[in-house]
Design a protein that fits this description.
Structural class: mainly alpha
Number of helices: 10
Protein name: Trimeric intracellular cation channel type B
Shape: globular
Subunit structure: Homotrimer; conformation seems to be controled by binding to diacylglycerol (DAG).
Number of domains: 1
Helix content: 55-70%
Keywords: Endoplasmic reticulum, Ion channel, Ion transport, Membrane, Potassium, Potassium channel, Potassium transport, Transmembrane, Transmembrane helix, Transport
Largest sheet: none
GO molecular function: identical protein binding; potassium channel activity
Subcellular location: Endoplasmic reticulum membrane
């Protein structure tokens, strides 16, 4: 019979953690037709990531996790992670340019995949753990790290193609400072919406005509006495009026 892997299987958990850590390398290698297991050749990185995974989940009394749950230490680690995100984006763009010269769409895609691969490959990682949540697809509803990585991939690609008049080290410095400051601010303030929400709403309304429906202004629509919302009633009334008009045109 088929071999069933438990969700709590250490092997599945370890492989899931490795996908989170090296998802960018795996995804970018697949996009460039390279071996997706190339990241396993870096034994030091695998050993370091495996050690962190083991201490987080199997350290007695959760001492390792409690130490890094200390807020100043969490902020430090989060800032270091954002610094490595910049390195991953620039390395992905340079790697893509070595395969496809001046193909800026490829450079954007590979830089995006290298910097946010852990999020973009999350659905496959869920399958490894025996979980399937298609509504968490990052392409359907992007999280903040995926969005900011895409913006960085576009900026560094424009700079690499000499369409953005700024030195590379200056762009690296400014983008990294923005990542660290925004990440620390979000961790301290815990905002309800993404920092890009106002810009997304403005761009969506300007170019695609997207706007909030009136029913979401007050509590996602008021409920009527029979349990249906006002929006449902208004839509059904409009549909009924449309049917009447079409029937009247046919009789004419």
């Amino acid at each position: 019979g088929a071999v069933e892997v438990s969700v709590r299987s250490p092997i599945a958990c370890w492989f899931s953690a490795m996908l989170h850590c090296f998802g960018g390398s795996v995804l970018s290698s697949l996009m460039l037709a390279e071996p997706p297991v190339a990241f396993l050749a870096k034994g030091t990185n695998i050993l370091l990531a495996s050690s962190v995974w083991y201490f987080v989940f199997y350290c007695p009394q959760d001492l390792f996790y409690r130490c890094f749950a200390f807020l100043p230490l969490r902020l430090l680690v989060a800032g270091m992670k954002e610094v490595t995100r910049t390195w991953k984006i620039t390395a992905g763009i340079a790697h893509a340019d070595s395969h496809f010269k001046d193909a800026w769409l490829v450079m954007v895609a590979v830089g995006w995949a290298r910097g946010a691969g852990g999020g973009l490959i999350s659905n496959f990682e869920q399958l490894v753990r025996g979980v399937w949540k298609p509504e968490t697809n990052e392409l359907l509803k992007m999280s903040y790290p995926v969005k900011v990585t895409l913006i960085g991939a576009v900026l560094f690609t424009l700079q690499h193609s000499q369409y953005l008049p700024i030195a590379r080290h200056n762009l690296v410095f400014l983008y990294t400072i923005f990542l660290v400051v925004s990440k620390v601010t979000m961790m301290l303030t815990r905002p309800a919406t993404s920092p890009f929400a106002p810009f997304e709403a403005a761009i969506g309304h300007m170019f695609f005509g997207l706007q909030k429906t009136p029913c979401k202004v007050k509590g996602e629509g008021a409920a009527s006495s029979n349990g249906s919302s006002v929006c449902d009633q208004s839509s059904s009334e409009q549909h009924h009026d449309g049917v009447k008009k079409r029937q009247a045109k046919k009789t004419e």
